[in-house]
Amino acid sequence: MGQPPVPGSSGGGGEADEDRLRWAMLYADPFAELGVYAMTERPSGVGSPVLFSPGAVSAGDRLLELVARLGMSDAVRGAWGAVAPGPSVAEATAALLAAPELRRAIGVVPAGGDALPRLAARALTAWAMVHSARGAGTFPVPERDGLVDVLTDELGGDVKGLSDVLASALGYSARLFERSLGSRLLVSRRAALSNRSVGFFGDVLSYLTRGQAVRDHVAGAIRALSDRRPVVLLGHSLGGIIAFDLLAAQGSSPVADMLVTVGSQAPLLYELDALPSLRFGAGLPGAFPRWLNVYDRRDLLSYVAAEAFGNDPRISDVVVDNRQPVSAAHSSYWANADLYRVLSEALPG
Q: In 134-163, which ranges are continuous DSSP H helix?
């Protein structure tokens, strides 16, 4: 059906793929890494003498104090407002402080500190994104990781590198989580996932059965730009289907000079012979304009186009890496600087 393969799905794609899988786990449960940490690390003092120092604050209690004071940091407030508007720092820290995973984790943090500040920072960042109205996949990855760095610094700084045991446990947990998406997670979140899926496919089906008014509206908006050339139609997902369908229906006089689709299902619908404007096997109309089709291999709703249309030279399939897990890849194109680089190179001047 022209869908690109998903790389790294077996978990063997290296450090970048492992981090992507860990963020997929965090998007589903922001405190998951803390839970793995609590189960993996040795309780504080195990295997060595326990020394009591009157008035001393344990590393775990110190971390709790730093979490509670994050909202007073100008650096945190500035980074938070720029990256994750919506849920406040106070809301996120309250959720983290109430999380049983954090309470278990601070019971095993070594006196000298370790990776826990960064894991707590990742938990806070994931919580903010999950609870935002935008959706986790819409946040640019560099900004997301930058916020993690700021929070880590405020929580006591970073220890470079995870222990071998913790790194293995986090990687294994992330891969196990990915493989369980088809069973336990999907069952437990069936209602929410079904609502999103039905909403998306319902919109597509509604357009396919009653889309003429939509095409007429878009065509009218383009005609209003008749004195401006070149005209480029750009659409994401269903928007790309509508743009493609409109141009295919125009026959010998297309209303635009270029089509750009991002995360598009138009090639799939063509191969299913489901498009109102173009029967399968007909190929692109003779006057169809140049077509740039952008996709991400991890976006399960994106499809390559050239092969579906007999490798028509007017079609250019360009792959980008949104650096998001499968669950967030479809909604994250506009947060990817590489997409804008592709557009700047391809769009007519």
A: 141-154
pLDDT in tens, 174-214: 665 555 444 444 444 444 444 444 445 556 766 776 778 88
Amino acid letter, residue 287? A
Asked whether the beta carbons of 7 and 297 are under 8 A apart, the reply is yes
State both tokens at 261: 């689709």
Indicate the burial class of 321 (C-beta count within 10 angstroms; 0-12, 13-18, 19 or more): middle
Helix (H, G, I), strand (E, B) or coil at 310: coil
Q: How far is CA 44 from the centre of its chain?
A: 36
- The rounded distance, in Å, linking the Cα atoms of 207 and 238 is 9
Element (H, E) at 328: helix 326-329
Which DSSP string do the residues of 235-267 spell out, in sequence order?
EETHHHHHHHHHHHHTTTS-S-SEEEEES--HH
pTM of the model: 0.65
Q: Which residue has the tokens 């700084």?
A: 157
Cβ contact 321:338 at 8 Å: yes
Encoding tokens for residue 242?
């509508």
Nearest to 334 by CA among 168, 141, 56, 90: 141
DSSP 96: H
What are the tokens at 322?
Answer: 């949104």
Q: Among 131, 130, 124, which residue's Cα sits nearest to residue 148?
A: 124
- Please state, in angstroms and rounded to a whole number, the distance separating the CA atoms of residues 279 and 179: 38
Classify burial at 174, counting beta carbons within 10 Å of its beta carbon; exposed 0-12, middle 13-18, buried 19 or more.
buried
